[in-house]
Amino acid sequence: MRTRRAQSRTTSRYANVIEHLESRYLLSGAGDLVGDTPATATDLGILTAAQPLEVFGTIDEAFDLDVFQFQAAAQGTVTIELSADSSSLDTFVRLLDSSGNEFDFDDDGGPGTDSRLTFTAEVGETYFVEASDLFDATGDYELNLRILTDVVGDTPQTATNLGILTAAQPLQVFGAIEAALDRDVFQFQTDIQGPVIIELSAVNFGLDTFVRLLDSSGTSVDSNDDIDFFTTDSRLTFTVEGGETFFVQASGVSTSIGDYELNLRILTDVVGDTPGTATNLGLLTATQPLAVFGVIDQALDRDVFQFQAETQGIAIISLNADFSSLDTFVRLLDSSGNQLASDNDGGPGSNSRLTFTIEGGETFFVEAGGFSTSVGAYQLTIALDFVGDTPQTATNLGVLTATQPLQVFGAIEAALDRDVFQFQADIQGPVIIELSAVNFGLDTFVRLLDSSGTPVASNDDGGPGTDSRLTFTIDGGEPYFVEASDFGSSTGDYRLDILLDVDVGDTQETATGLPLVNGQATFDSRINPRDSGFDRDFFRIQAPVDADSSITVRVNTTAGSFLGGLDSFLTVFDSRGEIIGLNDDRIPIADQQSLVQFNASAGETYFLEVRPFDGRPADLRDPSAIGEYSLFVNASLEQVPDADTNTFGRAKEILLTSGSGFALTRVSIDYPADQDVFFFVAPMNGIVRVGHQSAPNNRLDAQLAVFDNSPAHQTILRSPVPLSPHSSSDLEFSVTVGARYFVRAGLFPSETPSENPSDYGNATGTFALTLQMVTAVIARDPQVLAANNPLSVSETIDVPGDTDTFEFTVDHEVARINLELNTLGT
After folding, report:
1. Which end of the chain, C or N, has fewer beta carbons within 10 A?
2. Does 802 map to a domain?
3. What pLDDT score does 444 carry?
4. Interatomic CA distance for residues 729 and 723, integer angstroms
5. Burial class (CB in 10 A: 0-12, 13-18, 19+), 546
6. Within a domain: residue 622?
7. CA separation for the pair 685, 738 (Å, rounded)
């Protein structure tokens, strides 16, 4: 857990003036003239196949949106790309139809954090493009819109001719699969006989490539979908005859689309076949493995490589040919050329893998070949396992502290390999140990050993999937050992995390205080595992004391998408513990970040709760929903526009008179955390009914609450269920003439709105608030109690909180008065 104070940041807001240069729009500084809504959108004009549209603009303040309008000149596939190569923006693009309804959106469909989406446009239809940042960063962007035209033929008869492939001149082409089932076919010839490698790679996310090789008659010779488990790119190798014509068909799997890069090259055997003619790979170190690509281009060919090891250790030698038909065979030779070890199929499939303990400074040779007469391309990797397998040879990770967790990356390079690490903690407490596979293949297993090497805890699948996680209370100052291994005989890379479970307080009473420095605060933490229920973190902030402000609270999770990790849920409370705002997803159903913005009173204290989101019943919720997050708080003296006040001290009066006994006012929930407070003075003793009626376009799940005029403003009653759209509901309570009462209207504190589950705390709306005197208490004359004249009365408790008061006198001194209260029915 790490705390960091945010630096003061000044953002100058400048204008966007449009200068039309052919199809390019430059947005230059003079005030933000790009509208934030379809109604105020900047019109880019007509998009044609020959004339794409290009815009340069700026997200010049947090949560700014730039909206552009365009029409397509013809029906076809349109690609929208939003990039930020010159700034730190994490771009987010949305496409809206002519009515302003969301049609599609994308976050990271382009390179890096750039955005890209493709859709089929209808001729003459108006579309809107919304450019923004995923979080609240500012910076420049480039927006490109173009209609895709398929200029590459789909058959051998219409193929694009790439020319002649030679050993000195490989062939390369860039293209795009613009629609589902699109095919791009290319023709080439070779000048010599030999092995050819064809690689089809996606340039950005979205395209799952598929490559097919056809002979001169158009008959399929070979094909490939995925090179291996770790990529969806395609590769195949085959032997060609000189002068022959071949066709390469590039496509996408299923309906995937996107840009691609196609490479063709002839593989030539430049590696020696003996130790005397070996290719020197250099020095093998613990941090620098050796890797090389090559080809066995004819039967019984051998490629020999030379290397030296920096230190003694276990060498892991892998010879893989997942992308060719080669059945690999590998041998390890000493400096004299004598065989030390060999392997045929020790790796996955027909790949080869061997391990051997080597001496530092010695020269070794690796011979790569094919089993029997097989030929094809290969990849050779040589790595040094530098982590000891026992407590005596363990790698020391140092001291574990509450503010400094320990992390290391490693690899289980062979079956039954063990990596052992040593650490100490500076204090006693629970420690969390997580062993996660970095890629497919490794099923992790972790053990914790005490200072004598005795196991004290172990775990196989306590984390997500087949990852391992254990929690154990350790003693400060004592050495411990962590053993990372595989379950079964799996191999692969891993990440080991060791951290002290020093938890942020789970209640408002134990909340961690966050001082606002220059109006900002930042805190890095994590939701930790629990045996049952949820871990939750509470924080306490104080609004700026000089003036009322607008406060934005944002939770960014490590995952930030649906790929796993923490899906955060944020709740904001006032100093009385009343919920004033809550949110699951900043962009409904599009991310796992949370955001609440609210208007704060000067100097007021607020509480922030961060926990996992889980909409299931409490007894079914998953206590393993954990992960890291960053909490950001920003206070601005420019408040969010709000029609009514949020505080008791500035509440607007609703005039309720004894004459009409009725009053009505309009309530507007202007932003998700808005809370509108009103007060009235009771014109007489009796019962008041508070009513609610939604507006026709309402998306709000509202709640009404009634408070007294005490310094603490005690709650009298509140709506027990959400006042959902188009519904009405009444609250009734007794009042005393001349007393002041407060009515507060806001969002109902529920993480799953009753009629709009996609809102998750994002809803706003308007409704009518009515007050009505429904019963007046009629004053009674005092009654006289005499020895021979007992008194009795029958009345009704009409509403919750109702109180009936009676007055009587006695006509002489008495020793005792008996009071008896009997209830009738329920």
Report:
1. C
2. no
3. 92
4. 7
5. exposed
6. yes
7. 8
Nearest one of 445, 427, 564 to 496, comparing CA atoms: 445
**What pLDDT does 368 receive?**
94
Q: Count H helices, E strands: the chain?
A: 0, 59
Clarify whether residues 536 and 619 are in a common domain: yes
Entry pTM:
0.41
Q: Are 376 and 401 within one domain?
A: no
Query: What pLDDT, on a 0 to 100 scale, did the predictor assign at position 205?
Result: 66
Do 218 and 292 have their domain in common? no
Tokens of 734: 């007794």
564: left (phi over 0), alpha (psi -120 to 50) or beta: left
Our count of domains for the chain comes to 6
**Residue 432: beta bridge partners?**
471, 499
Do residues 125 and 153 make contact, with C-beta atoms less than 8 angstroms apart?
no
In a domain, 826, yes or no: no
Give the pLDDT confidence of 291-302 residue by residue, as tens digits. 888 888 777 889
User: In this predicted structure, what is the pLDDT of residue 648?
Assistant: 79
Domain final residue pick, 124, 147, 170: 147
Residue 812 is assigned to a structural domain of this protein: no
Domain of residue 675, CATH code? 2.60.120.380
The type of residue at 191 is: D
**Pick from 610, 667, 620: which is nearest to 642 by CA?**
667
123 and 218 in a single domain? The answer is: no
Q: How many residues does the chain have?
A: 826
- Nearest Cα residue to 275 out of 332, 330, 314, 353: 332
Ranges of residues in the chain whose predicted pLDDT is under 50: 1-24, 26-31, 531-532, 559-564, 616-618, 620-621, 623, 751-761
CA distance 73 to 594: 40
Query: Which residue range(s) make up the domain with 318?
Result: 275-385
85's tokens: 């190569």
Last residue of a domain, one of 495, 529, 554: 495
**Cα separation, 360 vs 77, whole angstroms:** 60
Same-domain pairing of 204 and 186: yes
Question: What's the pLDDT score for residue 651?
Answer: 85
Distance CA(1)–CA(504), nearest Å, equals 9
CB 747 within 8 A of CB 582: yes
Q: 222 with 279, same domain?
A: no
529 token code pair: 């595992």
How far apart CA 566 and CA 543 sit, in angstroms, is 28
